[in-house]
Amino acid sequence: MKKWIIISAIIVVIGGVSGWFFLGKKDQAQSVAAVAQTTTVQKGNLEVAVSGSGSVTAITDQDITVENTILVVDSVSVASRDTVYKGETLITFNNGLVVKAPYAGEITEVNVESGNGATRGAILLRIEDEDGIISPITRGDNNTSDSLSGGSSLTVDTVSVKEGDVVEQGATLVTFTDGSILQTELAGTITSLSVANGDSVQGSAIVAHITNYSSLQTTISVDELDITKVQVGQLVTITASAFEDETFAGEVTKVANEGISSNGVSTFDVTVQITDPKSLKIGMSTEASITIESKEEALYVPVEAVYKSGDEKYVLALATSGDSTQSAKKVTVETGISNDTYVEITSGLAEGESIQIPIVQSSGNSSLGGMMMPNSGFQGGGGFPSGDFGGRNGGGSPSFGGGAPSGGRGGN
C-alpha cells in the first residue's frame, strides 16, 4: 500500500511539472503574435535614386605657370601643299621669333594664321619629307631663344591684373619683355599673384592661381552595387547642411572608372556639376540624390506589402463580406520599378484598394518591425515578403501631388 502511495505521488508531481512546462511554453508562444496594418494603393510619381555625400569644390581651380605663355603670330609665309626648302621661313611672331623649315618637303597642314596666339609646344604646321614621313612643327622646335629649359628665364614687362580681379577667358595677365604674353584659358577670380613688373621668372614658376566661384561641383562616393546604374547626364538633387530648406539642381559629369576599396567594400567617385550654385561656397558639405529612373502616375505600395512565393508575387487585399466583416485574400500582382521604400504595381491592383502590411508585435505592444523572409508561402493570410526590391543606396521616394500617401503606413 505504501508503495502505491509513493508511485501515485510521483505521477502527480510529474504531471504538474509537465503541465506547467507546456502551459508556460504556450503562454510564451502566445506572447508574440503576427498582426497586420492596412494601407491603400497609391498613385503618383515614383523615383529610384542613388545617393551619397560630398563637399563643394570649384570646377576651375588651377595654377597658371610661365609654360602657358603665348606668342602672337605676325605672319604665315606658307600654305598647305607648298613645297619648301630647308631653312626657309615658315612663320614669324610679333616679337621677331622665326620658325624655319627643318628640311625640304611639302607643307601638308597649317594650323595658325596671322593674329593667332601659340603656346609653347603648340603644333603650328605639318611637313612631309621626301620619304613620305609627316612630322609636326611646333613653337620652339628649332629656336633656342624660345626655350625656357637649361635655367633660362623670362622677364616680366607688365602685370595687368591684381589679386581678387574677376577675369574672362582669354584675358591677358602678364606680358614679358620677349614679346610673349600670359593669358588665362578659363574665366574666374585671381586668388593669388606672385609676380610684379621687372621680375625674372623661371619656366616652371607659378605666376597666378585662378578659381571660378560661380561654377561649382560636388563629388560623392557611390557603392559598387549601385555604380552601374549611374551615367553621365543624369539629373541630381542636391542639399547642403548650411541651407536646410533649399535644394540645388545638378547633373552627373563624370563617373570614376576605378573604385576605392575600404574594409572589403568598394566605392566610386561620381562628380556632379551644380547647375545654379546660388549661395553655396567651396567646402560646404552636401548630400546628392541621383535620379536613376522615374515614372509618373505610377501605382505603388510599400515594398513589405508584396509577398513572394517562387516566381509568384502577390499581396493580401482586403475584401468586405455582406455582414461588413473584412477578410484578406491573395491577389497576384506584377511589379515594375522600385526603391528601398516603394514598389510599382503594374498589374493586379487599382488605386485606393486596401491591402495588408504584416508586422510582428510583442504582447507589450512594442513593435519588432517588418520581418521579411524570402519565398514565404501563403498561410492563412500570413507569411512575409521577400524584401528583394530596391537597392542598397538611398532609394528615394515618390513625389505626391497632395502630400504623403494615406493609409496605415502614412507614407513610410
Automatic annotation (TrEMBL):
Pfam families: Beta-barrel_YknX (PF25990). Residues 368-377 have a biased composition (Low complexity). Residues 378-412 have a biased composition (Gly residues). It is found in: Cell envelope. Residues 219-287 form the YknX-like beta-barrel domain. Keywords: Coiled coil. The keyword Coiled coil applies. The keyword Metal-binding does not apply. Residues 368-412 are annotated as: Disordered. GO terms for cellular component: cell envelope. PANTHER family: EFFLUX SYSTEM COMPONENT YKNX-RELATED (PTHR32347:SF14). This is HlyD family efflux transporter periplasmic adaptor subunit. It comes from Psychrobacillus soli. The lineage of its organism: Bacteria, Bacillati, Bacillota, Bacilli, Bacillales.
